[in-house]
Amino acid sequence: QVQLQESGPGLVKPSQTLSLTCTVTRGSITTNYYHWFWIRQPPGKGLEWMGAIKYSGGTYYSPSLKSRTSISRDTSRNQLTLQLTSVTPEDTAVYYCVRDSGYWYLDMWGKGTLVTVSS
């Protein structure tokens, strides 16, 4: 069964860039026709979809975050990367890497990683 594991700094300073990696095991990120999402959940709030990268490498983003978000991948390492620029304390959240098996059927989730934005 595929597994997803997020990793990255737990603390980022305001105005800096948040960078997270999702390592996928027991499955390939290039397998048709999966999409791979980044989703976050601020403390006490609901889930927010940030963006995605397709099995083919194409990307698409939430309009509200598009100007600050970049999602990429390293197929040799089977990893996904999230970058969020110009962070503020409002970007403090648990960040999840998620697999979409089609039509927003989110069947596999990483455990999530808490990122705190603070000076």
Description:
With 119 residues, the protein is an all-beta fold. The chain is built from no helices and 11 strands. The strands form 2 sheets. Strands 2, 4, 5, 6, 9, 10 and 11 form a 7-stranded mixed β-sheet that branches. Strands 1-3-8-7 form a 4-stranded antiparallel β-sheet, with no helix packed on it. Strand 4 and strand 5 form a beta hairpin.
Count, helices: 0
How many E strands?
11
- Distance from N terminus to C terminus (CA atoms, Å) equals 39 Å
The proportion of strand residues reads: over 45%
Radius of gyration computed on alpha carbons: 13 Å
Low-confidence stretches: none
- What is the H/E order? EEEEEEEEEEE
Which sheet architecture does the biggest sheet show?
7 strands, mixed
| Global mean pLDDT | 96
Q: Assign an overall shape.
A: globular
Helix proportion range? under 10%
User: Structural class of the secondary structure composition?
Assistant: mainly beta
Give a brief rundown of this model.
The chain contains no helices and eleven strands.
Blueprint of the fold:
Blueprint: E1 3-7, E2 11-12, E3 18-25, E4 35-41, E5 48-54, E6 59-61, E7 69-74, E8 79-84, E9 93-100, E10 106-109, E11 113-117
Characteristic key phrases:
51% strand; four-stranded antiparallel β-sheet; seven-stranded mixed β-sheet; mainly beta; 11 strands; globular; 119 residues
